[in-house]
Here is the input.
Amino acid sequence: MKAAALALLLLAATPSDEVTMTATSVNVAEPGTPVKIRILRWSTDQERAPIVAALNPPAAPAAPARNPNAAEAGRGRGRGRGRGGAAVAPLSPIAALTAAIGRAPTIGYIWTSDITGYSIKYAWHSPLPDGTDRIVIASDRRLGAYTDAWKAASPAQETDYTFTLIELRAGPKGLIEGKTSLTNKIAVDAEARSVALENYAGASMTLAPPPRR
Here is the structure.
């Protein structure tokens, strides 16, 4: 997939933290799809915590040592009784993250050429040393879930996430660049305490600036 710089035009940023941005798709099956992102507010620490924890669960406690004598003594007991319920396997980190994003409140919207929009369930930002602003948003649905328009130009690079994470950079003049989880893996940025793209610098692009009129 050809790398291309992405920039979005910042249209509004009110004192209430509401932000609106526009872009077009690139490096997908149907490039040039218009995109509008509207963040109504940022996620609170309480709303972010379960999403970050889902992808970075605590280590499971070590299983206790097995006593062979106790196992021998227990043989033959309980015959004729129904079996107890089988232990439920824990969710994988991605499955837990998908569920956590789905439970989060809607704090914005993403509109494309699809009939319906996409709810933003996670929105976080932080200033960077170079003066830009780092923004991460997530929707509980995958862009192009019901159309081939957002299929990657190189299908081998596609992820199988059912949600969408978008990481952006906002500059002093309102221009931002960003990439998505459609073709890039995600991880927890421990220092930022946020979910993010695993390798932002090496990630491929999915959006571009809207065409000038």
